[in-house]
């Protein structure tokens, strides 16, 4: 009979005590795994989603992090807007003419190539501030779902589960078409052809009932914040009551609110503002050029979303995660102490058993190995149960987590390595479906449990090692 078989029989003989001891270790490992998994997946989701195909965001001067959270993740409130003419600085004359072809020439003024047009691959305006129920309404242009590409295969980043992209204008719905994210559709039951009315600033008493939008498309799940948003045609957004910028010399009348403005005539340039602009530059040097020039002015600011999200996690989220990890590791250590106490307290009852084994020829090292094996069985066995429990628990809560955050957690998704460690490993290895998952912090748990088991099992094992055979057998009844 092997050492492991003997150790397993000894554990079974003390089934109740062994079960309670392993259960305490399972709880500790469950907490450690849950913290690593949730933090790892959420931070990876934030970091990945901070670069949704653009590398810069332009918006009103103020908090940089607030601008990123508001524009990219729809988690904060917009502060101020920037003039529509600032957005035009990122477009060529031809692009401006195409976007404003439905507008009267006298309302759009003289068009020229924008200052940053040659440095910009694309620029997409977004207008925020309205809600549909609890979901953010995003006013933008159809190109929002056309220019973003998947870097792997150059396919559009966003696809439609049902329907199509909204159009700037058509005879059926005019300027009032909308596309809804997958989570919004699932939670609200919206379907193609439904009419929706946005509320101004989320106020349930200020709903734009006079400007309903027709749902023409439902996005396929993308695992991004866009799953939790409603996208409407920006031209229709401008025509809703209270969305037109009014000059100080003008009075707010019916023509500004949109009640008498022809639905087929876009809002004039001078009455337009945008909340932010999503920008992808045409070369590696353009971000520096654009950022320096824009930030020196008093109209807007440029922020790099990846840098802001990284700073957020380094300064706020990571310390909280570290504290939680310290607490959960201490719980595991306390569970290890309980293993020590359990085995050590059983030594008095097992002295005769150990003495008989020694008398039958077992070496001191064999006896010591049996006790250490018991400690490893209790520790690793409880750890495996805790690891499985954490994954099943989070998988069961995945629908709720996805509905609130957009983060999807699979049954056997593993906690990714921190970015600082990922950069040390070739990307081909990390992205490999078979080898990549092996580089996870969760695989440190088992070796750590074995080391802990050896440390806490050493005292009772040494006690067994020092057992005096003759004295024990002679004193036994």
UniProtKB/TrEMBL annotation:
The record lists the membrane-crossing segments as 20-42, 323-345, 366-390, 443-465
Topological category with respect to the lipid bilayer: Multi-pass membrane protein
User: In the UniProt record, which is one GO cellular component term?
Assistant: plasma membrane
Q: What keywords are annotated for this sequence in UniProt?
A: Cell membrane, Membrane, Transmembrane, Transmembrane helix
Boundaries of each MacB-like periplasmic core domain copy?
18-243
Q: Where in the cell is it found?
A: Cell membrane
Which part of the chain is the ABC3 transporter permease C-terminal domain? 326-467
- What sections of the sequence does the record tag as coiled-coil? none
Which Pfam families does its entry note?
A: FtsX (PF02687), MacB_PCD (PF12704)
User: Which protein are we looking at?
Assistant: Peptide ABC transporter permease
- Tell me what organism the protein belongs to: Blastopirellula marina
